[in-house]
Amino acid sequence: MTTEFIICSCYIIARHYNTVIWSSYLINEIELIEEVQRRFTKRLRGFNNLSYGSRLARLGLCTIELRRLHFDLVFCYKIVFGLLHVNCDDFSPLLL
């Protein structure tokens, strides 16, 4: 295993942990988080001359916004089909 693989794996795990809970919905925060991924991928050996899209493709990654959408959809699917129990009473004060 290369150092880049290990670092990239740790970064992906940390980035995806509880995405549905902590993920921002504000455009400027999403852009700041995406910029972290841009800088991170650019610092990997051999990736500094590639475009952001090319770096993501070679690493098998997606943009953070696309990953966020994916995790949100999976979360909603689990709720709709009863794979995840959500107590709606916990959210009723938020709806008022």
Alpha-beta content class: mainly alpha
Tally of DSSP β-strands: 0
Low-confidence stretches: none
Average pLDDT: 76
What kind of oligomer do you see? single chain
Beta content: under 5%
Number of domains: 1
Q: Helix proportion of residues, in percent? A: 55-70%
Cα-to-Cα separation, first versus last residue: 52 Å
Order of helices and strands: HHHHHH
- Approximate shape: elongated
| Biggest β-sheet description | none
Radius of gyration: 17 Å
Structure annotation, total helices: 6
Could you explain how this protein is built, in words?
With 96 residues, the protein is mostly helical. The chain contains 6 helices and no strands. The protein is elongated and about 50 Å long. It starts with a helix and ends with a helix.
Main attributes of the structure:
elongated, 96 residues, 6 helices, mainly alpha
Short description:
With 96 residues, the chain is mostly helical. It has helices spanning 3-16, 19-22, 27-42, 52-59, 64-80, 92-95.
Annotate the secondary structure layout.
Layout lengths: L2 H14 L2 H4 L4 H16 L9 H8 L4 H17 L11 H4 L1
